[in-house]
Design a protein that fits this description.
By secondary structure, this protein is mainly α. 38% of the residues lie in helices and 6% in strands. It has a single domain, classed as Glutaredoxin, CATH 3.40.30.10.
Length: 99
């Protein structure tokens, strides 16, 4: 993550396709998340192709279930610190969190 490097912040990059978060990890992220949890789910063409709607990702359990089954729908980047998690869009949010 370039912003973390520019700020000199030690960080780990998780390649979510190779190492997708499991249900417990997703629940930990949600517990720290400053954003609405449903924002973790990308509303893209795959979301539509799967026939999903906002009603399918309205609760924490639904969000976790969808993301465990369809890891490609995880919004990214997700930046997680010891206390906080954010969706890193727009990029200036990452700088504010890590700065």
């Amino acid at each position: 993550m370039r912003i973390a490097e520019d700020l000199g912040v030690d960080h780990d990059v998780v390649l979510y396709i190779r190492e997708p978060p499991d249900a417990d990890a997703l629940r930990e992220i949600i517990a720290k998340l400053e954003d609405p949890p449903t924002d973790l789910v990308r509303r893209d063409s795959k979301f539509a192709k799967l026939g999903l709607t906002d009603d399918d990702v309205a609760t924490e359990d639904q969000i976790v279930d969808v993301l465990v089954r369809h890891k490609q729908l995880l919004q990214r980047p997700v930046v997680v610190t010891a206390e906080t998690a954010i969706i890193g869009r727009p990029k200036d949010r990452v700088a504010r969190l890590l700065g």
